[in-house]
Amino acid sequence: MLEQYRTVYEGGEGEITEKKSRFIATVHPVESEEEALVFLEEMKKKYWDARHNCYVYSIGMNREFTRCSDDGEPSGTAGRPMLDVILGEDIYNVAVVVTRYFGGVLLGTGGLVRAYSKAVQEGLAASKVILKQKGIALKITTDYTGLGKIQYIAGERNIPVLDSEYTDKVVMKLLVPVQDVGSVQKAITEGTNGRAGIEKDQELYYAVIDGKVITFDH
After folding, report:
1. Which DSSP helix (H) or strand (E) runs through 124?
2. In principle, which of 18, 36, 154, 171 could form an S-S bond with 165, CB 3.0–4.6 Å?
3. What is the DSSP letter of 75?
4. What's the CA gap between 152 and 141, in Å, rounded?
5. How large is the angle between the packed helices 108-125 and 79-89, nearest 10 degrees?
6. Closest CA to 127 of 77, 85, 166
7. 104-159 pLDDT, tens per residue?
8. Which residues pair with 7 in a beta bridge?
9. pLDDT at position 191, please?
10. β pairing state of 170-177 and 52-59
11. Which stretch of DSSP H or E encloses residue 146?
């Protein structure tokens, strides 16, 4: 399991024109190879009249399902350059189709590589790409004298508070990056003189999107 990874939260569409040929890149988040194949079929139907619908997808934390296709373009001029952009941007669980409407002018091998690469970059620029981080939800139980110290530690370290419950005691759920769990536990224990109860509640991924913390199960 990766401690953090980049992925597409919302897909988008980008377009470039090279010597009268249109290159339309459609980006889509996918969680399985089946989802990727359904997306490819949808794009082929949408752009049925295009000369080429080249594609790439990369799925899994070890990129277990990674495929690319030149779809009739000269070998190595479309699918592989598209994959190189995905790998270079370090994006996981994504599928991209670049549709080409031929403009009557041959671009040559180098021209095709540049065009398909640039189209993918435009598609990603039009998408919402996020950084998912692996975190541990820590359940903190404390009395009211320890509350201020815990709030200070969370604020100082930009740790999201998922939930708070106030009764005769306070129960807070903090979302801590997995690599910081040890140091946060230590800081809370020392800050409350050992009076706070700390237990690991669950492991999840999260991302900050438009200023809000969104959690994911993977």
Report:
1. helix 108-125
2. 171
3. T
4. 15
5. 40
6. 85
7. 888 888 999 999 999 999 999 999 999 999 999 999 999 888 888 999 999 888 89
8. 92, 130
9. 86
10. unpaired
11. helix 144-156
